[in-house]
Amino acid sequence: MTDPSPPGRAGLTPSTLDALLEGVVRNHKAKVIGWLRDEPGCWGFLAGQAVTECRRQLGRPLAEAERRMVWDRLWWWLEQIKAGVTR
Predict the structure, then answer these.
(1) Where are the alpha helices (DSSP H) in 1-87?
(2) pLDDT digit string (tens) for 64-87?
(3) Predicted TM-score of the model (pTM)
(4) Which of 12, 19, 35, 74 has fewest C-beta within 10 Å?
(5) What is the rounded CA–CA span in Å between residue 77 and residue 82?
(6) How far from chain centre, in Å, is Cα 81?
């Protein structure tokens, strides 16, 4: 996978991203539960929190490819949680 960040800008590494997303999931358990129940607004809230946390960590706005990477990885995290709950 190529680095989606623009030249000269620090990008997100998989380990950094996973640590950030773990924090988002841990800090917003009620929204995760809402997402599991298909409650409106939960995905958007979690996706927004993930992007905001990544922006804060990097000290800059995310490029479009980076936002998409964050959303994709967050969805993966949520699907893993869902799989664990439904076992």
Answers:
(1) 14-27, 29-36, 42-58, 64-85
(2) 999 999 999 999 999 999 999 866
(3) 0.84
(4) 19
(5) 9
(6) 13
- What is the C-alpha separation between 36 and 85, in angstroms, rounded? 9
What distance in Å separates the CA atoms of residue 62 and residue 68, rounded to the nearest whole number? 9
Distance (Å, rounded) from C-alpha 47 to C-alpha 76?
A: 12
Over residues 15-44, the pLDDT tens digits come to 899 999 999 999 999 999 999 999 999 999
Please give the C-alpha separations between residue 22 and each of 8, 16, 75, in angstroms, as whole numbers.
27, 10, 12
Cβ-count burial 27-42 (b if 16+ within 10 Å, e if not): ebeebbebbeeeeeeb
Measure Cα distances from 73 to 4, 7, 68 in Å: 14, 22, 9
